[in-house]
Amino acid sequence: MSIDGEPRFPAVVVYDDGLTAYELGDDLMVCRKTDLNAGSAGKYAPSTIVDSDGVAWRVTGAEKLRAVGPFMGFNLFFNPSMRVRLKFEAAPSAANLDWLKGEVVKRLKKKDAFGVVLKIGATTIDSDPANALIPKVEQATSPSQIINVLLTADFPERQRWEQNPVR
């Protein structure tokens, strides 16, 4: 386990009111201006990222690094794309497996509290598929196994996405 630099992906982000599993880092590190401006209501709200190496990073927000995409990220709706740098509260530390299991299970039991962001698309997972993951999460022996369980969750869109990728 290397505790330096930035989180390694795939990773799970645990928010106060939900969690999101990210397959790729760019899906978290590239955003629209509205995402960055959303503050504590958006994806850069205070949270904990647990990466695939089992390292926990306490996030306090994000700051713009540069515009990305054609025309410096500009679009007609004045919501440019940008790459951000996460702001961390303190140095990262090894993730506590029991804490992670408890936090993930708690959020899987909540309605519309679990999102998954894959190469092929992003969605919020409904209650039934989310609850079906709880036994697998409880049996996991490492943070990377928990992340894998979340990323391989079964949901209605998956089959369609895999047949016709949107990205």
Could you describe the 3D structure shown?
The protein has 167 residues and is of the alpha+beta class. The protein has one domain. It is built from 7 helices and 9 strands. It has helices at 26-29, 33-37, 97-108, 127-132, 134-139, 143-151, 156-163, and strands at 11-15, 19-22, 30-32, 47-51, 55-67, 81-88, 93-94, 114-118, 121-125. Strands 1, 2, 3, 4, 5, 6, 7, 8 and 9 form a 9-stranded mixed beta sheet that branches. Strand 8 (114-118) and strand 9 (121-125) form a beta hairpin. The protein is globular, with a radius of gyration of 16 Å.
Task: Tag the structure with descriptive keywords.
167 residues; alpha+beta; 9-stranded mixed beta sheet; 30% helix; 30% strand
How many structural domains?
1
Task: Give the overall silhouette.
Answer: globular
Compute the number of helices.
Answer: 7
**Fraction in helix:** 25-40%
Low-confidence stretches: none
The fraction of residues in strands falls at 25-35%
Oligomer: single chain
Number of strands: 9
Radius of gyration: 16 Å
The gist of it:
This protein is an alpha+beta fold and 167 residues long. The protein contains seven helices and nine strands. It has one domain.
SSE arrangement:
Blueprint (H helix, E strand, L loop, with lengths): L10 E5 L3 E4 L3 H4 E3 H5 L9 E5 L3 E13 L13 E8 L4 E2 L2 H12 L5 E5 L2 E5 L1 H6 L1 H6 L3 H9 L4 H8 L4
Parallel strand pairs: 2-8
Antiparallel strand pairs: 1-2, 1-4, 3-6, 4-5, 5-6, 5-7, 8-9
